[in-house]
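W.,

You were right to be curious about this one. When I first looked at the sequence I had no strong expectations either way, so I just let the prediction run and decided to look at it fresh. Below is the sequence, 151 residues in total, followed by the output.
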Amino acid sequence: MTTTNVHGHNQHGAHRWMVPLAVVTAGAMVAIWFPFAALWQQQHQIAQASAALAAVRGEQRALDVQSRQVASTRAQRDLARADYQLVSPGQSLIQVLPGRAANGVWTLRDDPGYQPLARPDTVPAATTLHASASPSRSFLERLVRTLEFWR
C-alpha cells in the first residue's frame, strides 16, 4: 500500500524523478566543466607561449640587424678599436693615465682603460725627436730630454 499525504499525492512518486535528475545534472556538469576548464587552461598556456615566441622573434630580428651592421671589415675594425682597444698592425696604443680622480676616489669610470679610444683622424700628428745620446750631457739633462713629452 502506498502512503498519501493530506493533499492526496503519492510521496514516493514525487521523489522518484529527483534522484535521476540529480544524477543526470551532475553527469552533465562533469562532462561539460572538465573539458572546458582544460581547454581554457591550454588556451592560456598557448597565449603565453605565443607571447614568448614573439619576444624571441623580436630579439632575433634585432640580432640580425646587428650582425649585418658588423659584417663589414671596417665595422669590425671600429668595434675592435672601441670595445677591445685593439690597433691595426704597425700602430701602437698609448694611454696617458691621469694624476688622480676629480674627487680623490677612483672608480671604474675613472680608469682610462674603460674610456673610448681617440679617433686617429682627430689627434694631431705627433712628431718624435730622436736626439743623439752624447756623452757630454749630464744624466739629469738626458732624463729631462727623455721625459720631455710629459710637459
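Here's what jumped out at me. The chain has a mean pLDDT of 77. And, maybe more interesting for your project: Residues 16-90 form one domain.

Coffee later to discuss?

I.
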